[in-house]
User: What shape does this take?
Amino acid sequence: MKALIVDDDVSVCEHTQMILREIGIEADWVNSGRQALRQVAYTCQKNEFYDVIFVDFKMPDMNGIETTRKLRHM
Assistant: This one.
């Protein structure tokens, strides 16, 4: 499995990534909704896909709901 973690708190991203890797899930992280959109587009161009994306609800540039809505339309 492959996961993407989206959170504006870098320590949360790093810790979540560590936990996921310990259970055998490859995980990338970004610290904003805009970076999440770029990262998903980049992986799709390489014909790779995330099985799950963890999105923080409260982020400064684009909240979790807006980020999720935009990701769903990609």
In short: The mean pLDDT is 97. Residues 28 and 65 are 20 Å apart (CA to CA).
